[in-house]
Design goal:
The complex is a heterodimer of chains A (112) and B (113). Chain A is built from no helices and 11 strands. With 112 residues, chain A is mainly beta. In chain A, a hairpin with a 7-residue loop joins β9 and β10. In chain A, 32% of the residues are buried. By secondary structure, chain B is mainly β. Helix content of chain B is 0%, strand content 53%. In chain B, strands 2, 5, 6, 10, 11 and 12 form a 6-stranded mixed sheet that branches. Chain B has a 4-stranded antiparallel sheet with strand order 3-9-8-7, with no helix packed on it. Chain B has a two-stranded antiparallel ribbon with strand order 1-4. The chains are: A mainly beta (112), B mainly beta (113). Chains A and B meet through β5, β9 and β10 of A and β5, β6, β10 and β11 of B.
Amino acid sequence: DTAVSQTPKYLVTQMGNDKSIKCEQNLGHDTMYWYKQDSKKFLKIMFSYNNKELIINETVPNRFSPKSPDKAHLNLHINSLELGDSAVYFCASSQSGGGGYTFGSGTRLTVV
Amino acid sequence: AQSVAQPEDQVNVAEGNPLTVKCTYSVSGNPYLFWYVQYPNRGLQFLLKYITGDNLVKGSYGFEAEFNKSQTSFHLKKPSALVSDSALYFCAVRDEGFQKLVFGTGTRLLVSP
């Protein structure tokens, strides 16, 4: 049973398109995150939701919109994709109070 | 704001030798410290964490890390490296009062046979 699962694993799309990445966790955690890993392998947080409420929103273009229908799901929708959006996007979850973060296997987004 | 520094882009070690991957951190409150490993084209796997308690933390695959408050360091160690340990290692920190986990830039560990 996968703890944090993301779909799709790979996504190749043209500039200007709109795409979504889905994430689900079955760990019962109350907080979920989106991280972006660029071509130099730097990991940067984008968003965090705690019990469906947005608690972290880093400096991310408005074209990126997270949605959390319930505390087990956090989806990422990206409008008007640009070449610079090409990266690996990781979903993660944790439980408030200091627990470790569990990461999904990542979604490799390539914008052409 | 919290931050993490991993001063070495790459660490090379021969199989069977001890290894150390360095990490220093900066937080305003008490630190929660983590090490993750990433194998090629894979996600991040949790190795170990320090929240409180004993300064020497033991984790997965024989790794351990030592929390040093005075030096604000949390170096990752293993007594005897394996070729299969070759991967990208990330140190991460979060401030006690915040949910945001901040990562270092990563250190590539290369273990030669």
